[in-house]
Model the fold of this input.
Amino acid sequence: MAAPTRTKPGRQTQTRVVDSDSRVLGYEQYVNEQVRSTARSVRAMDVSLSILRLVVGLLVVLLGAAVLEHWVLPGGLAGWQRYLVFGGLTAAAFAWAVRDLWPLVARGINPLYAAQTIEQASPSLKNSLINLLLRRAGLCPARPAAKGPAPPTRRRPRSARR
Done:
């Protein structure tokens, strides 16, 4: 039973007795919510880094085209060459978005990866969160607890060992 909690000096609140099953369920809900929250954060970070890579790549190509037009080619690029650069840039950006950005948006982040991210942030967990998720999924069965020393093995007499 839990002791009464005090909210203000002199006032006691009613204490609710919570059985162990619902308390464990509460812990599992808390762990699940933390893993989901971390997965959302990881996805947002991956998407923003991918978009940043795209923008930097586009700026590098446009800067290269500008340098090529103004300093390398006498008379600059012709109209069809500019359209070719623009079309190639658009096609490359679309292909990149389909290959790199779409999987991040369409698929979920693996909960084990999110758990690994949480464990890297707080090393005191020591792989326990990943083990919890693996055991809950049935991928890592729990070992039976050892119950005292192992029973002695029967040894055959020396005469029977040959």
Q: What stands out?
A: Helices lie at 20-72, 79-106, 111-121, 128-137. The CA atoms of residues 55 and 93 lie 9 Å apart. The beta strands are 6-8, 11-12. Residues 1-7, 10-19 have pLDDT under 50 and may be disordered.
